[in-house]
Amino acid sequence: MPRHSESLVRNLARGAVLGMALVPVLVYIFTGYFGAKQMAFDDARVQASRANVVISANPDAWQYVAERFLDQIAEVRHQDTRTELTDFEGKMLAQIGDECLHWCVSDQAPLLDFGRAVGDLTVKISLVPILAWASFLGVLGLFVGLALVNLLNRHVLIPLERTRVANIELAFYDPLTRLPNRRLLMVRLDQALVASHRSQEFGSVMILDLDHFKVINDTRGHDAGDRLLIEAAQRIRTNVREGDTVSRLGGDEYVVMVEHLGREETSAARQAEMIAEKIRCALNQPYVLSSSKTAYHGTTSIGVVLFRGQQVSSDTLLKQADLALYRAKEAGRNAIRFFNPEMQSAIDSRAAMESALRQGLLQAEFQLYYQPQFDQTEKLIGAEALLRWFPANQAPIPPAQFIPLAEESGLIIPIGLWVMETACAQLKAWEHGPLSTLTVAINVSARQFRQTDFVDRVSEILQRTGANPAQLKLELTESMMLEHIEDVIAKMEAIQALGVKFSLDDFGTGFSSLFYLKRLPLRQIKIDQSFIRDITTDANDAAIVRAIIAMSQSLGLEVIAEGVETQAQRDFLRSCECAQYQGYFYGKPVPISEFARGLPCNALVDTFIPA
Ligand code: C2E
Ligand code: CA
Ligand code: CA
Asked: Which pLDDT value is given to residue 371?
């Protein structure tokens, strides 16, 4: 039965209950009240004429009609009325009907005695019996109505609803796992493509295939196979978000569709890979398919494709994911493959680099290089510690390549701690030599800074190494100030309380809110090298640098220019009264041994700790 006619039946049933209860009540009240009143009025008229008075009031036409139409019922109620005839002082002249009086309606009309007014005619009707009867009829009607609806429900509506749900289930869901089937998947995928077109966010379709599923069916029977399929469906469901679609295409093939993977392709691919990996791991856990048999260990192959907008149809997307799945199987199964080969190789090399990073940390493949910083009088005042990675049997990998990956994978946390520890140990080693006044600046990544125990870690390292906190400088970037600024400020203040200073790195490239600049407990601003590069040729850059220096001075902040490569740049900066300098013109980042050697105080080389 179509939906609208069903709701019609439902509404009719509701109407029936209401009607059964209300209609008799209304009819009874209406006829009882007006009929009785009319009767009483007539009696009063008779009585008045007996008392030699004339009633001038005429019942309205509608009262007359009601009287005629409802005569029979009114007759009954007439028993419960009383009519009194009183004079103007309220003295009763005559009385009709029962003596029992409750609340009553008073209908007053002047009484005339041969043209002279002698009193009022009051008609009073007791409503109690009328209401009692009306309530009885109402309750009776209600019960009859409910009984009718109950019958209707039991014999018509519930069976109808069951059939409807069963039809929907059959049409859109897989009966075994109760997951959406291909039909519903395609509907949702089409909707997702439209939504992605609007938001320009990436989404992903993954096809999963349980490796060697046929073996289970053949060796342990179809029941065990079914149980495996149900269990696998549950595991997939619990490993994706609420809004993602998990569907079963049939056999041992499932499709997962995820949305909102952001607008950046590499990051979307990375997220899709992480989800696929999570599902793969969950599906590879042992299955207990029956109490007597040993646990079943299975693996899964997954093909992944990304989508954005509607350039590729839903059918094609499924084919692409299927092709990727084929490649995963070709690669020996128990694997994840992307449809797009470039994406696949990017994912592969990232994965390889990530595991190499992990190895690197264990095998001490990292080193800190130091780049000197000078003041206006060419006096060495400090150094920035910059991380270098020398993987075994490979060319060194620059920080721009491995730092983002270390951030994403969380490896930046142990790496960052190592950097801080090494830099602090270096400060301690300089303690009693001519370099004892130098500061060391280290770069702190956003993820590292956001760690809840970051303040404790800094404090711990300072204590352990015995370094002077006043000589440690943490370089933060403006991007860190974008989230939870109050937390950032609180953390910075706690670290400042330890005696450590802060420098705002790459200044001018981020959002540079002057408001925050004033609120943050900063010691220094570092003008980004992109402004310094063309400072002598680009009037805009020159103006920006001048403005930054003037602003820092008025805010009482130190200012350092980084990326100073030429004498001309240095001279220009000097003319703007820039106080501190760092760049290739003064010296490149070098290992600690060379840092010492390049300086006038190279006699102190042996006080440097090896990196
Ligand atoms: P950064 O903090 O802005 O560091 C300055 C970068 O500019 C360094 O690159 C440095 O070698 C380079 N540089 C210095 N002077 C000049 C110059 O005169 N000309 C030019 N063209 N470049 C100059 P590097 O060492 O490759 O580091 C790149 C970025 O990697 C750093 O940018 C920093 O964001 C990050 N990084 C380096 N070490 C660490 C670390 O220990 N922890 C974290 N979280 N990030 C680090
Ligand atoms: Ca820096
Ligand atoms: Ca910088």
From this structure: 97
Q: Are 515 and 551 in contact (CB under 8 A)?
A: no
- In whole angstroms, give the CA distance from residue 137 to residue 27: 10
Residue ranges of E strands in 194-266 = 203-210, 245-250, 253-258
| CA–centroid distance for 534 within its chain | 44
CA 229/CA 587 separation, integer angstroms:
64
Domain boundary among 117, 132, 147: 132
Radius of gyration of the chain (CA): 45
pLDDT in tens, 267-286: 899 999 999 999 999 999 99
Ligand 1 center to 388 CA (angstroms): 10
In Å, how far are 6, 153, 408 from 156, measured between CA atoms?
10, 6, 59
| Residue nearest to ligand 1 atom 17, measured at CA | 563
Residue nearest atom 16 of ligand 1, based on CA coordinates: 563
Give the pLDDT confidence score for residue 535 in this predicted structure.
95
Exposure on the CB side of residue 384, measured as CA atoms within 13 A: 28
Q: Which of 78, 69, 65, 64 is nearest to 32 (CA)?
A: 78
Question: What proportion of the chain, given as a percentage, has pLDDT over 70?
Answer: 80
Gap from CA of 259 to ligand 2 centroid (Å) = 36
Q: Indicate which atom in ligand 1 lies nearest the CA of residue 564.
A: 18
Q: Which of 204, 326, 182, 190 is nearest to 275 (CA)?
A: 204
Nearest CA to ligand 1 atom 4: 386
Expressed as residue numbers, the domain containing 272 is 182-339
How far, in Å, CA of 168 to CA of 2, rounded? 12
Report CA(442)–ligand 2 centroid distance (Å). Answer: 7
Q: Is residue 267 part of a domain?
A: yes
Q: In 10 A of CB 171, how many CB atoms?
A: 10
Backbone angle region of 466, left / alpha / beta, with phi > 0 → left and psi within -120 to 50 → alpha: left
Q: Which two tokens stand for residue 218?
A: 């053949």
Same structural domain, 250 and 360: no
Query: Residue with the nearest Cα to atom 44 of ligand 1?
Result: 445
> Among 339, 371, 397, where does a domain finish?
339
Residue with the two structure tokens 């993602």: 244
Ligand 1 is surrounded, with C-beta below 6 A, by 371, 386-387, 398-400, 403, 416, 419, 443, 445, 475, 505-506, 529, 562-565, 583-584, 589
Which of 43-57, 245-259, 512-526, 531-545 has the least mean pLDDT?
43-57
Distance, CA 451 to ligand 1 centroid (Å)? 22
Residue 539 CB coordination number (10 Å): 9
Any idea which ligand is nearest the CA of 386? 1
- Helix and strand totals (H; E) in the chain: 20, 19
Protein residue whose Cα sits closest to atom 46 of ligand 1: 443
CATH number of the domain enclosing 198 = 3.30.70.270
Q: Which of 220, 218, 239, 354 is nearest to 285 (CA)?
A: 239
If one counts the domains in the chain, the total is: 3
The ligand whose atoms approach the alpha carbon of 585 most closely is: 1
The 10s digit of each residue's pLDDT in 483-535 is 788 899 999 999 999 999 999 999 988 766 777 788 899 999 999 999 999 99
For residue 390, the one-letter residue type is: F
Q: Whose CA is closest to atom 43 on ligand 1?
A: 443
